[in-house]
Amino acid sequence: MNTEQTNINTWRADLQASRDLTRSEKSGFEMILGWYEKWRMTRGAIPGRESAALFWKAQVRAKPREVWQLDQWAEAIRWYLQWLTFCEKNGRNALSLEERVRLAVDRAGGRRGLALRTRQTYAGWAGRYARWAGDERTVMDPERARMWLSWLVTDQKVSYATQKQALNGLAFFFKDVCKKEDVDLQVKFRKTPKRVPVVLSIREVAAVLSKLPPTCRLAAEIQYGAGLRLTELLNLRIKDIDVERRQVTIRAGKGDRDRVTVLPQSVAARLGAWKLQLREMHEADRAAGFPGVALPKALARKMPKAGERWEWFWIFPALNLSVDPESGIRRRHHLHDEFYTRALREAVRAAGIEKRVKSHDLRHSFATHLLEAGTDIRTLQELLGHADVKTTEIYTHVAQNLSACGVRSPLDRIEGDESHPFPTISPAFTGTVSASPPFGLTRQNFASEALQSSRIA
After folding, report:
1. Is 202-396 CATH 1.10.443.10?
2. In principle, which of 117, 145, 189, 216 could form an S-S bond with 212, CB 3.0–4.6 Å?
3. From 229, 282, 332, 333, the catalytic residue
């Protein structure tokens, strides 16, 4: 190993400088160690023998491998562990600059009481900036940060929301980690226009629901029937659903706001049987002595035993236990968002829906269908939890009979004529279709006749 590297170099620099490995071995080592590093950083694990063993079991042994692959990858892991020992003995930091920045932002966010997802977002953007900046001195220069943000806008052409996320992450990094109070990043956002949401018809929603497995189907029915965001859906607890009043209470939703929305009557009729299954799982966890479910914010300190009580149990719990990323406790969490969204994607494909559908589009469909049914915009705003009614007004652009999309096309005023069937194109056809205008109109006056029909009151 190269002993003359500074403390900002990572294993990659020492790997390339090693004289004990061939070029082919260096390439193979870099591939598996990069894979391990990405896996480790995603889970917030520290580098070492324990995380390497978990990675080997969860990723390498997850499917059959060639013998030469296992031999080379095992040798790479051994080289890496020796490199960690070398760094420790020589007082070097084994973490890359990107990871150190991520950890610093995450810890500062924890001290500030920021939510886990907010900390992860800020840390992710600060880490990307650190990787772009390259060294410790440059990463603390606001001028370099301005250049990076400008690069995101001009070269990467990221969306307006992404620009704001990156700016907020860097502002937090400079003020709370670098302790620079007066930082003006001087970035002018490139405003992008609002995009029309994807909306499913009621028939399409029913088709998608019919293709989902039971647990995910119930979750999708509640998300569509109550108009929930994905995180709001997955964080539902027993106490948040009132079957008698047919209400769903959202706690600490977007903007840390609470709200009440509607519980579909068809779902309320089936929740009784679902709760019986949940009760069995809850009692089995208590009998096995597992820790209670995670509680929001400071409630775990105020009510340390509340996580073991029935009313705090998840409506959609995970089948297996997992490690809490905040406390490190192995307990039962709610259904993983990737499991639910993957099942939804597969159901959309199986239903033959020719749209790019995401889980949030069920919420879009809820809002649009309520508008089409006559719900006023203010009531819809309350159900959706929008702080500004202008956000709710976007659904007026996609609801039928409320916007230009609800206008009847002039072509639909022309009645069908069997003597002029729709032209067909043979497989070998390469020329231009020449179809006669309907009603025997000449090509010269067909357009003017259609325009006049569109003006009929």
Report:
1. yes
2. 216
3. 229
CA geometry: angle 405, 411, 414, nearest 5 deg: 135
Is residue 254 part of the annotated active site? The answer reads yes
229 is catalytic: yes
> 10 Å Cβ neighbour count for 434?
7
What pLDDT is recorded for position 273? 92
Q: Which of 254, 259, 309, 336 is catalytic?
A: 254
Residue 354 is which amino acid?
E
Please tell me the distance from the alpha carbon of residue 219 to that of residue 241, in angstroms, as a whole number.
13
pLDDT single digits (tens) 81-99: 999 999 888 888 888 888 8
d(CA 37, CA 59): 12
Sign of the Cα torsion 182, 183, 188, 189 reads negative
Tell me the pLDDT tens digit for each residue of 23-38: 999 999 999 999 998 8
pLDDT at 423: 54
Measured torsion, CA atoms of residues 375, 376, 377, 378, in degrees rounded to the nearest 10: -120
386 flagged as catalytic: yes
Question: What is the second-level CATH architecture of the domain 98-177?
Answer: Orthogonal Bundle (1.10)
Confidence category of residue 435, pLDDT binned at 50, 70, 90 = very low
Q: Strands 259-262, 241-242: parallel, antiparallel or unpaired by DSSP?
A: unpaired
Summary mean pLDDT of the chain: 84
In the set 217, 251, 360, 397, the catalytic residue is: 360
Global pTM reads: 0.69
Catalytic residue among 36, 80, 224, 395: 395
What residues does each domain of the chain span?
Answer: 11-95, 98-177, 202-396
